[in-house]
Design a protein that fits this description.
Blueprint: E1 3-7, H1 12-23, E2 27-32, E3 43-46, E4 60-66, H2 71-80, E5 83-90, H3 118-133, E6 138-141, E7 144-146, H4 155-163, E8 168-171, E9 177-178, E10 180-182, H5 183-196, E11 202-204, E12 211-212, H6 213-224, E13 230-233, H7 255-260, H8 267-280, H9 290-297
Parallel strand pairs: 1-2, 1-4, 2-3, 4-5, 5-6, 6-11, 7-10, 8-13
Antiparallel strand pairs: 9-12
């Protein structure tokens, strides 16, 4: 049994990670302000990340799993921690600028991405501070994460279209590709990093296969038991008004990940898990008014 600290622990990725390790029998602590319902089995350390004080000083952790968003957040946590063994930062593919050669490799130059802006540049700085201070830490850079507990209105939007028996308004011909990674695969990869302790300390993670947005929507309809009927939108309008993703196609090279973990969750199976969770947790998803825009501007 390991003692594990998960920063956050109440929403999507960090919540899933915390519950994953609780189910494995580990002693899981979560660091948050206690403004949301806590997962069963976790041990709460109630504190604002920007004002932790000495609340972590007397703990020993075998593993710290951090979703830190900025250099400041990393610095404050490192200052507040007592003794620990391993540290893993969940970073993002947003660190790669859109103009670089794709697929993005771990060695690709980092800079602002016009679609992700400050979120991406803050993650760049967070990575640098961590690896400067803790050279044996690991950094993982996922593309779009999905799976149970996803409170971001992505697959949930498509599921709502299915439930309401709506046609789906698809940007252009639907050939834009997306790369996904199931949140359970993220946890599995963390396990492998700690078991094998590879020399590389920065990893792109994601499914080997990208899918078109038309294929993705089709799968979302199919796992609910329906067939998608599409309306193609060729108007020069911002697709984020009516669709869950930016008009931005990119690929991560996940060769290094595949050397450690060659198999990942099949997208159909992962989306079925997502829908099973969504049916029981619709109120936990942050909705956007895509349907209203469609009804008022695209019908």
């Amino acid at each position: 049994m390991k003692k594990i600290l998960v920063t956050g622990g109440t929403v999507f990725v960090s919540r899933y990670i915390a519950e994953y390790y609780v189910k494995r029998g580990d002693e899981v602590y979560v660091l948050n302000r206690n403004t949301k319902v806590q997962s069963k089995g976790v041990k709460l350390i109630q504190a604002d990340r920007y004002d932790i004080g000495d609340k972590l000083r007397d703990y020993y952790f075998d593993l710290v799993i951090d979703n830190g968003y900025s250099a400041k957040e990393i610095e404050l946590l490192l200052k507040a921690l007592g003794d620990y063994k391993d540290y893993i930062l969940i970073s993002s593919s947003a660190v790669y600028p859109e103009y670089e050669v794709q697929p993005f490799k771990e060695e690709t130059s980092l800079a602002e991405n016009k679609y992700w802006g400050k979120y991406g540049t803050d993650k760049i700085e967070a990575e640098k501070v961590l690896l400067d201070r803790v050279p044996n830490a690991y950094v993982v850079r996922p593309p779009y994460l999905y799976g149970p507990m996803n409170n971001i209105y992505r697959e949930g939007f498509v599921f709502d279209c299915v439930i309401k028996d709506r046609k789906f308004y698809l940007p252009k011909d639907g050939s834009m590709k997306l790369q996904f990674f199931h949140v359970q695969d993220l946890c599995r990869f963390i396990d492998l990093l700690l078991e094998q302790r590879p020399e590389c300390h920065i990893y792109n993670v994601g499914n080997k296969e990208a899918v078109t947005i038309k294929e993705w929507v089709t799968l979302c309809y199919e796992v609910v038991g329906k067939t998608a009927e599409f309306v193609n939108v060729y108007d020069e309008i911002d697709q984020r008004n009516y669709f869950s993703f930016y008009n931005y196609e990119y690929y991560l090279d996940v060769t290094k990940q595949n050397e450690l973990m060659p198999e990942t969750q099949a997208l159909r199976e992962g989306l079925k898990e997502s829908f099973d969770w969504y049916k029981e947790n619709m109120d936990n998803v942050i909705r956007k008014d895509y349907m209203n825009y469609i009804d008022n501007n695209l019908l």
